[in-house]
Write a structure and sequence with these properties.
mainly alpha; 2 strands; 68% helix; globular; binds Phenylacetyl coenzyme A
């Protein structure tokens, strides 16, 4: 009992003094499970997030755009891997996390259940979705769990490049023909509100925020981060001459922030329940990719078993002797 109190005291002291909690440190079970929940959802978002843009790799308008998009989508896969690795240090397995994604029980960011019918959607995702992801992830660089914080630092550097490439696509379209400008505006109209939903429910309805902020897993609340994103993005939209689809958007001198209209939380709930425009096809695409990769996992497990038995060392010795 006394030992337990000591451990809790030490954990709380580290949190208070901004020391990172590392995988071998003692931590409350609930801290561990909250992290596994958030980091695995985050990892799934990166992996499923490849699909909407991946849809345009074969149809990108120029070779430069194709190469950039290909690199960006590949980066997102890498982000998923850093995050799965960070979660694995908490004593869960990649298989467990994958099973939860593939059977539909795990969540991933709602935003990736929307379609990408035009090239401008690739610009809108980079500009808005990566832009929102960075606001959230910069804050998470100061999260209390060491491996998560370190993964975030690397991810943020890559995401800022993604955001700039998206903004540049939108800027180019906005300066182009009337048809191109309309395409950019239409993409902004479709992606704006779902992007605001990425930050999660209002603070008053966020069931995990209070505890997560106490443990410094989250450093800023859902509403704070959403406001930060809106304030910075309004000026960017003005700069390229596009209009944010919110009649209530207005600078509030007293608050020092933009006021904005209400999000359609009914739509957010529907998407989370699996009834968004692309939930089914996103899940099916992941399930199909998993089935197609079965031979790689099988080959790897045989290789690992042989390595454990020392078969390769015997083969190396034999080769040297020959
Ligand atoms: N979508 O109590 P809260 C990216 C769930 S990365 C789906 O407020 P919390 C890169 C929430 O999980 C984007 N579910 O929860 C990229 C919880 O459900 P649960 C991903 C959502 O954890 C760009 C319930 O609602 N980023 O985009 C959403 O305190 C371009 C109650 O909510 C991260 O994951 C949502 N939008 O706060 C890739 C960042 N919002 O678990 C490709 C890390 C809430 O009880 C292309 N995560 N829920 O079943 C976080 O910061 C937090 O987990 C929040 C939610 C802010 C997402």
């Amino acid at each position: 009992m006394v030992k337990n109190m000591e451990k809790i005291g030490q954990f709380e002291r580290k949190i208070a003094e901004e020391e990172k909690i590392e995988p071998k440190d003692w931590m409350p079970d609930k801290y561990r499970s909250s992290l596994i929940r958030q980091i695995s959802q985050h990892a799934h978002s990166e992996v499923v997030g490849q699909l909407p843009e991946g849809n345009w790799i074969t149809r990108a308008p120029t070779l430069r755009r194709k190469a950039t998009l290909l690199a960006k989508v590949q980066d997102e896969a890498g982000h998923g891997l850093y995050l799965y690795s960070a979660a694995e240090t908490l004593n869960t397995s990649r298989e467990e996390m994958w099973d939860a994604l593939l059977d539909g029980s795990a969540k991933y960011a709602s935003i990736f259940n929307y379609p990408t019918p035009t090239w401008a959607d690739v610009g809108a995702i980079g500009w808005l979705v990566d832009g929102a992801a960075i606001v959230n992830q910069i804050s998470l660089c100061r999260t209390s769990f060491g491996p998560y914080a370190r993964a975030m630092e690397r991810i943020c550097r890559e995401e800022s490049f993604h955001q700039r490439q998206g903004f540049e696509i939108m800027q180019t379209l906005a300066k182009g023909s009337e048809e191109q400008r309309e395409m950019a505006q239409d993409a902004l109209n479709r992606w704006w509100w779902p992007t605001l939903m990425m930050f999660g429910p209002h603070d008053a309805h966020s069931m995990h925020s209070q505890q997560s902020m106490k443990w410094k897993i989250k450093r800023q609340s859902n509403d704070e981060l959403r406001q930060q994103f809106i304030d910075q993005t309004v000026e960017q939209a003005d700069h390229i001459g596009l209009t944010i689809p919110d009649e209530k958007l207005k600078w509030n001198e007293e608050r020092g922030h933009y006021d904005f209209g209400e999000i359609d939380w009914g739509e957010f709930e529907r998407v989370l329940m699996g009834h968004g425009p692309c939930n089914q096809s996103r899940l099916q695409a992941r399930q199909k990719a998993h089935e197609k990769g079965a031979w790689v996992r099988e080959a790897l497990s045989v290789y690992t078993a042989k390595e454990k038995r020392g078969d390769f060392k015997i083969m190396e010795r034999e080769a040297v002797n020959e």
